[in-house]
UniProtKB/TrEMBL annotation:
Top-rank taxon: Bacteria
Keywords of the record: Signal
Signal peptide: 1-22
InterPro entries in UniProt: Ig-like_fold
Protein's recorded name: P pilus assembly protein, chaperone PapD
Length: 275
């Protein structure tokens, strides 16, 4: 007589990238809808060699940073959800399905109308996937087996733009701190306007003659307050006096320009020494 012991180990992995260990691929990583066209879609592709069970949810959340500039997702801010969330207004079809190996599925999205004020609203798109388990009756081994199930979560974003939208960045503080081997630059900023900032942050290190010696860049999404950090090794600097310039631009390589709310670049600079 066959005996089967089933053990489920659930691994949750939230990513902003498209692909997790060749399981499920999602494209694009951001979906944009507006009041002129309240419909959008994204593609889910099974790149594995197993059938995958897929489900879709729409939690509200946004990225924030801690004191070290590390990005953390916030999902329990009911006040911001009431102001900016559209989780209860989004419908996706289908919201659960099975994909065979190599199969793809278009998920269609729509935002129900509401008396919105001008601005940008959003929700997260959480795609959960796991390999489909065969029915127990199909197993033929006359022994006890352990069945391990991995669940993967991928988090992308749906933006809904309504009316006149604008964004901006206010640099509240730009400073640096030194350790034995590196210099860390810290920029504390606030987002202004009625929409999140999608763009790039650039740090340029200039020598005493104004020549650019080093450049560091990061694509980012700023919803509210934000801290950006850049670490520069001291051994990459061979002079004593430098200028550090931080700038924010509304462009990034992974988002089409027409989907980004534009603003004039914002920058600030400080002088610093190597030691």
């Amino acid at each position: 007589m066959k005996k089967t012991a089933v053990t489920s180990i659930i691994l949750f992995l939230s990513v902003l990238a498209c692909e997790v260990q060749a399981q499920i691929t999602i494209a694009p990583t951001m979906v944009f809808i507006d009041q002129q066209n309240r419909f959008g879609n994204f593609l889910v592709l099974n790149g594995s060699d197993q059938a995958q069970e897929v489900s879709i949810e729409f939690p509200f959340g946004y990225p924030a940073t801690n004191a070290e500039g590390e990005v953390q997702m916030i999902y329990d801010d009911s006040t911001k959800a009431e102001q900016f969330g559209i989780s209860n207004l989004v419908k996706g079809f289908p919201q659960s399905f099975v994909l065979q190996p190599g199969q793809r599925q278009v998920v269609r999205l729509t935002v129900r109308p509401k008396d919105f004020s001008d601005g940008t609203y959003w929700t997260r798109i959480k795609v959960t996937s796991n390999a489909q388990n065969p029915p127990i009756g199909e197993e033929t081994d006359d022994e006890i087996t352990a069945q391990i199930t991995y669940k993967f979560e991928q988090i992308t974003t749906l933006f809904y733009k309504h009316g006149e939208t604008n964004t901006g960045i206010k640099i509240n503080d730009f400073t640096h701190r030194k350790s034995d081997n590196s210099i860390t630059f810290l920029a504390d900023v606030s987002r202004s306007g009625n929409s999140p900032f999608l763009g790039s942050i650039n740090l340029n290190i200039l020598d005493s003659e104004g020549n650019t010696l080093l450049t560091r860049s990061a694509a980012t999404s700023i919803y509210f307050d934000y801290r950006q950090t850049f670490d520069i090794p001291k051994d990459s600097l061979d002079e004593e006096e430098y200028t550090a310039e931080i700038s924010f631009e509304s462009q990034r390589p992974d988002v089409a320009r027409e989907n980004i709310i534009q603003m004039e670049p914002v920058s600030n600079s400080i002088s610093f020494s190597r030691e």
